[in-house]
Amino acid sequence: MAIRRTMLIFMLCALPLVGGCRQSESGPIGVSAIGGPPQLANPNLGPLDPPSAFLALAAAQGLIRFNAQGQIEPALAQSWIVSDDGLRYTFRLVRARWPDGGPITAQQVAARLRAAAAPASRNPLKPVLGAIEEIVAMTDEVLEISLKSPRPNFPELLAQPEMAVIRNGQGSGPYRFTRQADGSVRLELPRPEDEEAPSLAPAIILRGERAALAVARFDRQSADLVTGGTLGDLPIARAADPPANALVFDPVAGLLGLAFTQTGGLLGDPRAREALSMAVDRGAIVQALAVPGLQPRESLLPPGIEGLPPSAPPPWAANPLPARRGIAARAIAELAKGAPVTVRVAMPDGPGYRLLFAHLKRDWSAIGVTAERVGMNARADLQLVDAVAPIDLASWYLRHFLCEASLVCDPAADAMLAAARIAPNAAERRARLADADRTLIAITPFIPIAAPVRWSLVSRRLTGFRPNPRGRHPAGELIRAAP
Fold first, then answer.
1. pLDDT of residue 200
2. Which entry of 11, 40, 303, 379 is 20 to 30 Å from 141 by CA?
3. H/E element holding 142?
4. Pairing of β 341-346 and β 369-374
């Protein structure tokens, strides 16, 4: 451990871009987000990595935002009203301006939201935005969103960075940003016109960088926060032996597992897919990861989502692991007819993902299957899915396995999800979602393992940082305001 920690320190001190080793308690907050250079990117063109998501939440807020606890609060919308039937949300905007001085209008916001749900959009939230019927600007300051059926937690979608309000490369605030010569971004709140207004939050220096560099920077106290950590780079954070309570995990929900990406050959048979799933020792994987609160999962849906009864476990789940592997080995041998069986598994690089693959390789070897790890863009039989759910909707999980999204699918499940989208009431929606879940369980399109892992390194200076179920940490609340 000491050797690995020394290597991290050496990496940072050897780099000329880093200044002094101690971050001032009164200076800008240093944030290192794991990923590429932060960009105020159009989320309708594709996913945002952690640096760009942090920048979007700070400098291009939507109608609603998350607070430090992961709960929603007003942003561009100063208030909203929900109709009695839950189908219409009416938002009244604050008086806000773009960095060039022009007013932010309801028409501009409505156009951005419509673009996110448009047919050509590649916004990651597009599948769940299908619940929107219409978005209309009623006046310059009021807009209305109509839904096809009630979604009590719909406002949480509007707080995600994918719903950021951007125009001509400009963000809607509250922070303004300037690019620095070293590739970082400086975030600052505009100075209030009232000279007696409370002092502004400190500026933020946001960097996007590799996990090892971000962790080393934190270790040298040149950063106050490392964010965007995943299972893949968790061993890097642990190798630095951070101070007590500095390594913080967000209790996020979502999908961590393997999606089948081939329908031909042996894996075209659901019995073979089921055999691979039943052979996985999820308990051993979770124990090896040692993430507080993380639980193994055998179901596609997490327990209790949308008030659904818990998914019926697969028929094999009640058997002890040795018995399950015996059943799986016999199924593979029968289907393969004596031929060797090799599966190619697409995973990103990273020591945590390599650890996960080592467990899978061992587990499948026990049933006569050889596993090979390949890159995410290589041809593969299975591909890692490591995604945080943006909202507590069962449909977010199930829509990953629609026929338009997954080669292993069932048109009957598609029909059930379509019926759930327009269900007239919550009970009918739950019934259709449960039907779709049961249909997908029968064909095994996915091998669930656990919830995703998301971590941060947090200095004692950041008194406002709170782990939360959304894994979002607003720039303006990193330091708790003085009472």
1. 72
2. 40
3. strand 142-147
4. parallel
Both 152 and 84 in one domain: the answer is yes
pLDDT tens digits for 416-469? Answer: 999 999 998 889 999 999 999 999 999 999 999 999 999 999 999 999 999 999
Number of domains composing the chain: 3
What does DSSP say about strands 204-209 and 29-34: parallel, antiparallel, or unpaired?
A: parallel
Dist. CA 185–CA 52, nearest whole Å: 10
| 244, 261: one domain | no
Tell me the per-residue pLDDT of 214-259, one tens digit each, with 9 for 90 and over: 999 999 999 999 999 999 999 999 999 999 899 999 999 999 999 9
Number of Cβ within 10 Å of residue 291's Cβ equals 20
> Which residues, 6+ apart, have CB-to-CB distance to 214 below 8 Å?
32, 33, 34, 207, 223, 226, 457
Statement to judge: residues 321 and 275 lie in one domain: yes
Residues contacting residue 429 through CB under 8 Å, at least 6 positions apart: 149, 306, 420, 423
- Please tell me the distance from the alpha carbon of residue 90 to that of residue 79, in angstroms, as a whole number: 8
In this predicted structure, what is the pLDDT of residue 18?
A: 44
Structural domain for 481, as ranges: 1-59+173-252+453-483
Distance CA 297, CA 299 (A): 6
Beta-strand runs (E) in 339-419: 341-346, 369-374, 382-388
Q: In Å, how far are 64, 66, 135, 139, 197 from 155, measured between CA atoms? A: 7, 10, 14, 21, 30
Of 121, 149, 172, which residue constitutes the final position of a domain?
172
Angle between helices 270-278 and 426-443 (to 10 degrees): 90
> Could you identify the residue written with the tokens 């051993």?
284
**Helix, strand or coil, per DSSP, at residue 203:** coil
Distances (CA, A) of 129 to 53, 93, 424, 431: 19, 21, 17, 21
Residue with tokens 């890097």: 236
Name residues whose C-beta falls within 8 Å of residue 330's C-beta, 6 or more positions apart in sequence. Answer: none
pLDDT under 50 in the chain at which residues?
1-3, 6-22
* Boundary (domain end) residue, out of 135, 153, 172: 172
Q: What number of H helices and E strands is found in the chain?
A: 14, 20
Q: How many residues does the chain have?
A: 483
pTM above the 0.85 mark? yes
What's the rounded Cα separation, in Å, for the pair 153 and 151? 5
Measured between alpha carbons, how far is 168 from 112 in angstroms, rounded to an integer? Answer: 11
Residues 201 and 248 in one domain: yes
Is the domain of 26 the same as that of 118?
no
Same domain for 47 and 77?
A: no
The number of CA neighbours under 13 Å toward the Cβ of 200 is: 19
Angle between helices 270-278 and 321-336 (to 10 degrees): 150
